[in-house]
Design a protein that fits this description.
This protein is α+β, with helices and mostly antiparallel strands and 185 residues long. It folds into two domains: 2-25 and 106-183, Topoisomerase I, Chain A, domain 4 (Orthogonal Bundle), CATH 1.10.132.20; 34-101, Gyrase A, domain 2 (2-Layer Sandwich), CATH 3.30.1360. Helices cover 57% and strands 15% of the residues. It has a four-stranded antiparallel β-sheet, with helices on one face. Strands 1-2 form a two-stranded antiparallel ribbon. α3 (107-144) packs antiparallel against α4.
Length: 185
């Protein structure tokens, strides 16, 4: 029973870290990536569809992204969706493709990105604490139902705390590495 709780808690905590790292892809760093457009969807025949499913999205260099819809009648929709997303650039429609020219990041923009990143890290830590609380509650319930002894309960809660500490340390290291990456000019 305890091993199931440990495994479930470990899985959820790893998931929290993976979610944080997916969120990082929406942050702007020194080099522009197509993932800044991941959350943008357009109405494609009544369905909210990601940009990369209605055309090619390519980072041609460190500051430019080109969106080339497979159906040219979608250019206007793509352009307005990107403009509405407020990603820090205005789309340029040349009638064939949409180009996004990202200026070099200022120190202030880099600091804003670090601030957003730290917020994402804090959200991940909150998730870890919630996972720890759920696991500890399950262990306490087993103890209350007399399925495990008080000593086993304390040992189980210690194991959960060690797992939480391990993942929290991992988040701190990921945040530190990402901050260096963002602030590097």
């Amino acid at each position: 029973m305890l091993n199931e709780i440990y495994n479930e808690c470990e899985t959820k905590m790893k998931g929290s870290i993976e979610h944080m790292q997916r969120d990082f892809k929406t942050l702007r760093t020194g080099k522009v990536t197509t993932s800044v457009l991941d959350n943008i969807k357009i109405d494609y025949y009544g369905t909210a569809t990601p940009l990369d499913q209605i055309g090619s999205v390519i980072a041609t260099d460190a500051t430019t992204i080109v969106v080339n819809p497979w159906e040219k009648n979608l250019l206007g929709d793509v352009e307005s969706a990107i403009a509405a997303a407020n990603i820090g650039v205005n789309p340029t429609n040349d009638g064939d493709v949409i180009k996004l020219f990202f200026p070099a990041m200022t120190v202030e923009q880099r600091k804003d990105s670090v601030k957003q990143m730290k917020g994402m890290g804090e959200n991940a830590k909150v998730s870890l604490r919630n996972d720890r609380k759920n696991a500890n509650d399950q262990i306490k319930k087993l103890e209350k139902d007399k399925d495990i002894t008080t000593d086993e309960s304390k040992a189980g809660q210690d194991t959960i705390q060690k797992t939480t500490d391990k993942h929290s340390t991992s988040i701190d290291q990921i945040l530190k590495d990402k901050e260096v990456e963002i602030l590097k000019v």
